Amino acid sequence: MPQNDADAPDDPVLAGLNPQQRAAASHGDGPLLIVAGAGTGKTTTLAARVAHLIREGADPSGILLLTFTRRAATEMLDRVARRLRGALGEAGERAARQVWGGTFHGVAARILRVYHAALGLPRDFSILDRGDTEDLLDLCRGRLELPSGGARFPKKAVCAAIVSRAANSGETVAEVLETRYPHLLQHEPTLRRLFDLYDEAKGEQNLLDFDDLLLFWEALAADPEAGPALRSRFPRVLVDEYQDTNVLQARLLKNLAPDGRGLTAVGDDAQAIYSFRAATVRNILDFAEHYPAATVLPLETNYRSTAAILTVANAVIAAAAERHEKTLTATRQIGPPPLVVRCKDEAEQARFVTDRLLELRDSGLELDKQAVLFRASHHSLALELELQKRDVPFKKFGGLRFLETAHVKDLLAFLRLAENPRDEISTLRCLLLLPGVGRSRAAKAVALLRESNGDFGSWKELAAPGGGVAEWKAFLDLMPLLAANREDLSSQIRRVRRLYRPLMEATYDNAAERNRDLEQIELLAGRGRDRASFLADLTLDPPSSAAASAGPREDEETVTLSTMHSAKGLEFEAVFVLNACQGGIPSEQAEDDAALEEERRLFYVALTRARTHLTICHPLTRHLKRHGLRDGYGFSELTPFLTPEALAGCETLAASGEAADEAPPAPAATVSAADVRAAIRARRG
Of the residues 152, 157, 497, 548, which has the maximum number of CB atoms within 10 A of its CB? Predict the structure, then answer.
């Protein structure tokens, strides 16, 4: 293969690259970190680097290309093939097909099939998916003698999340419980026994779960005999989205390339937003410490956003406590300044965003090219209802539509049952949530309620289910109170949440987030809402709600609603960011410096999805959750991530359209001075 044409101006392998991209693609064999800012062409650069390595003589079958999705690997290798076709013809395309490309887990499975004997694994091992993992844990859970009384033992999905977190983060089970599941700490010894049984069952049944694929690959790479053979088999390793790697993946890569020779990592510390999946930003920030001979090259030319948008985004990330230095520059100089729009509350925010979406559509910007981004799935509730009311089709990413989620449907089932005891669907849904209640017992309870003409007292004839006596009694106490309908609707919802929360915590890995969704239902109920009309409003079709719930037609324009996490890697002509305030972004759950820094990066990711139009919405009042005081509405401050330097690049308006130089006075508080004093006394003890 030719060795001396890499710098030729018409070189097809490096064609179209800017100077920074070309330097990264043509780098030598030493460890390389490419810090690729948003919209700077990292896929193009990484594909060019693979093509350059092959053209310079590297054996393509000895190149390992690791990505986080199969689609990314396929796209990358297609680009490699196109570049090599221009340089080497059909031989170049054939070479591209020999590269080992895929996800970490997909490549691990291939490698373990090849090297199974070195680890004493049968070649025909089976791989458990997430559902299989949960089911096997559930079988093992049945072999434990679980103590009666006390907090309920976590269900299979939570157990699976705990054992997976420990594997990927390098933490012990106790450390995982302490940081993420403190309410389950008392079960730590039993959980460790469960996970031991789970490992034994996998060994007996010739099974590996997803985490085992990486753990066994890591063990193979670290083995003093097998490790060198594996390293010589793959002398060049390239990793995409390096900021999303976890401790286990970093250990694996260190064993594959101990001194970093042949290792290329591509990523952006400013877009490290997946710590909840055990990813750690330290991997990319500390790359040069892990590999002292490393070269760090930035990509700073942004081909996506206008200069006005990048001015604000650069100012936001410049305030980060620690980062790889880079400043994005725009190739698109013309565009309007980002807008910061002050809205009275979330309802006005929803109306403003809907109005603006339609205005942009009427001016020629299709709905498909517009997106609304938010920190948490429940933040879009008011907007979803407004869009349905206004007949604006949308698709949502990052969770189900709010009213279709299981936990929201569970809560509403209690209210529907109280409103209509003949509603057997809601009756069954509520009963089957209770521990110890199976289909047979639930059917008897439904029949009793029907025969007693909706008298919840009739259920006292049924014996309390084993393993769920306290929950059964609480349910029997709750339903007559709800049926009487003497309390306001918010109070009724609060009672349901009190019963439902421990059931939810034992069932779902993300119970805290789901609980915040239920708080939004309480907020939606408002003050003085009638229960029957409230349920009817959520059930009856507003214009096009039936179509919306079924999903938009394939030929229909739809605006995208997405959590910020789910929007990573996407771009839109117009982006609206909701709830840019304290408690919105940053989340109220971000309680330490590391969490706040990740929230800053998440906000930066949201801003850099926009190509031309960026609108940041700040509701001045939001529903607040006060610890020790009553819930209520309160003034919400603008997100601290919009620093004075960032705001200098924005235009600030009120939702009504006037310039908003001053914030309106804070609304009247729903908490009294007496409440505050009482809370202060209580905190003193």
Answer: 548
Supply the pLDDT for residue 620.
94
- In which region does residue 542 sit, left (phi positive, over 0), alpha (psi from -120 to 50) or beta (all else)? beta
Closest C-alpha to 651, from 207, 340, 327, 335: 340
State the average pLDDT over residues 438-458.
91
- Give dist(CA 475, CA 465) in Å, integer: 12
Over residues 429-440, the pLDDT tens digits come to 999 999 999 888
CA distance linking residue 621 with residue 637, whole number of Å: 9
Would the annotation count 666 as a binding residue? no
Residue 40 assigned ligand-binding role: yes
Q: Is 559 helix (H, G, I), strand (E, B) or coil?
A: strand
The answer to whether the CB of 513 falls within 8 A of the CB of 376 is yes
* 526-527-532 Cα angle (round to 5): 75
Mapping DSSP onto H, E and C, the string for 474-523 reads HHHHHHHHHHHCCCCHHHHHHHHHHHHHHHHHHHCCCHHHHHHHHHHHHH
Phi, then psi, of 105 in degrees rounded to 5: -70, -35
Q: Please, is 124 exposed, middle or buried when counting C-beta atoms within 10 Å of its C-beta (0-12, 13-18, 19+)?
A: exposed
Q: Looking up tokens 């000895």, which residue turns up?
A: 62
Kindly give, in sequence order, each residue whose CB lies less than 8 Å from that of residue 371, ignoring residues fewer than 6 positions away. 559, 560, 561, 562, 567, 570, 572, 574, 575, 576, 609
User: What is the per-residue pLDDT across 1-13, written as a single tens digit (0 to 9) for each?
Assistant: 333 344 445 689 9
For residue 337, whether the previous peptide bond is cis, meaning omega lies within 30 degrees of 0, is no
Residue 457 annotated as lining a ligand binding site:
no
Q: pTM above the 0.85 mark?
A: no
Which pLDDT score, from 0 to 100, does residue 678 have? 57
- Maximal CA-CA distance, the chain: 90
Torsion region of 396: left, alpha or beta (phi above 0 gives left; psi -120 to 50 gives alpha)? beta
Nearest to 335, CA basis, from 578, 574, 559, 643: 574
Tokens 């698109």, located at residue: 332
> How far is C-alpha 551 from the geometric centre of its chain's CA atoms?
22
59-98 pLDDT, tens digit each: 999 999 999 888 888 999 999 999 999 888 999 899 999 9
CA dihedral 243, 249, 251, 254 (to 10 degrees): -70
Is 576 exposed, middle or buried, given 0-12, 13-18 or 19+ CB atoms closer than 10 A?
buried
Spatial CA neighbour of 472 closest among 459, 453, 454, 491: 459
Instruction: Describe the crossing of helices 173-180 and 188-204 by its angle, rounded to 10 degrees.
Output: 130
Find out whether 436 is annotated in a ligand binding site. no
Give me the phi and psi of 602, to 5 degrees please: -65, -40
- Which amino acid would we find at residue 590? A
Around Cβ 30, how many Cβ atoms within 10 Å? 15
Question: Is 37 known to sit in a ligand binding site?
Answer: yes
**Quick one: DSSP state of residue 402?**
G
DSSP 8-state secondary structure symbol assigned to residue 367? G
Whole-angstrom CA distances from 597 to 34, 165, 471, 586 are 21, 21, 40, 9
Token match 């709830």: residue?
Answer: 579
* Distance from chain centroid for Cα 568: 10
Please answer whether residues 643 and 331 qualify as being in contact, where contact means their C-beta atoms are separated by less than 8 angstroms: no
* Helix (H) or strand (E) segment spanning residue 396: strand 394-397
CA torsion angle 438 443 449 453 (round to 10): 160
pLDDT-derived band of residue 370, with 50, 70 and 90 as boundaries?
Answer: very high
